[in-house]
Design goal:
single chain, about 210 residues, mainly beta, two-stranded antiparallel ribbon, 2 helices, 12 strands, about 40% strand
Length: about 210
């Protein structure tokens, strides 16, 4: 098992996440190319600087740590409305890439989420357990627009997605802090990626 625990422009994008916003459809355009979930996530240095995001809990400082681009197949999705981080991140996605979405891993590994963690398990001792651990991750999604709030609400298991944005640390005036992982190899508390989502591709549709 492995538990693993994003420009500036938004106001209430990720904020007021419960309610009718989740039920509304999201606007999209054709994506142009298929999601290549076999590729490794791309993490690069960023020159983006700290910005302030207004939320229902007051202003939150968002500190970009890296540019991030991941293509994957969703193994599990869990919405959050009432936990401490729900005012920023309304959904966690367990993403799998490389060989994991294909046989033999696909049918022999199961995933589930609990309280912002995820767990995987398999009964097949012949599988490369290290590979499973380094090619799957639970990522906390912070949508940067209201349209992305809606789009992320409809992402589910089996969806092929591409998520582009930033890995970020956040800090609120009331003492709330949340830091991102910068590695796909870590495990345990603090190992989840905190993703400021600026673009989401789901199948053949692109959302911003």
């Amino acid at each position: 098992m492995k538990p693993k625990a994003a420009g500036a422009v938004l106001t209430a994008a990720a904020l007021g996440l419960a309610g009718c916003g989740f039920a509304l459809p999201a606007a999209s355009v054709p994506a142009g190319r298929a999601v290549d979930w076999r590729a490794e996530p791309v993490q690069e240095a960023t020159e983006r600087t700290l910005f302030v995001l207004p939320t229902r809990r007051g202003d939150v400082q968002v500190r970009p740590r890296a540019a991030f681009d991941v293509s994957a197949v969703v193994a599990a999705a869990e919405p959050y409305s009432f936990d401490d981080g729900a005012f920023l991140s309304p959904v966690d996605l367990v993403l799998t890439w490389g060989e994991l979405p294909a046989a033999p891993y696909r049918d022999r590994v199961s995933y589930y989420q609990l309280t912002r963690y995820y767990f995987w398990r398999t009964r097949d001792a012949g599988l490369d357990l290290r590979y499973i651990a380094t090619h799957s991750a639970n990522m906390h999604m912070i949508p940067s627009t209201r349209n992305l709030v809606r789009a992320l609400a409809h992402v589910g298991s089996g969806d092929r997605v591409r998520v582009r944005g930033l890995l970020v640390d956040v800090e609120a005036a009331d003492g709330f802090r949340w830091q991102t992982s910068l590695s796909r190899d870590d495990t345990g508390p603090g190992a989840c990626e905190l993703v400021w989502v600026e673009e989401l591709q789901r199948g053949s549709r692109l959302y911003r």
